[in-house]
Amino acid sequence: MGFWIFMLVNELLLPFLMIGFGRSFQKHPPKKINPVYGYRTKMSSLNMETWNYAHTCCGSIWQRSGCAMSPVVLLCMVFTLGKSNRVIGIVGTVILLVQVGVMLLSVAATERKLHKTFDLNGHRKE
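The structure assignment produced for this chain is given below.
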């Protein structure tokens, strides 16, 4: 049971971080374009307008994704109650890989929105 609780906490960590950072990015994006913290891509770093837009988009996606993943993770982990540590570990690994895939898709979705809204120089398209 101890390993199951450990895995449940670990599997819920990423969705909860996505919810927290998603809210933070939407309401309070980093004030300066920086190489350390925030949604940092070439397109998002062109100017403050692209920077703020990217954080709003990414934050929204992360918040929705985290809220959607949390109950799914919980449900999947409930089905592993009473199973062997090997089964719990395998299910946990699959869940984690899916979560990482969702995060990577959020980058693609944010970049697509940036390219639809701004030209390659960071100016809004009309």
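Interim note for the steering committee: Helices lie at 2-27, 48-78, 85-117. The chain has three helices and no strands.
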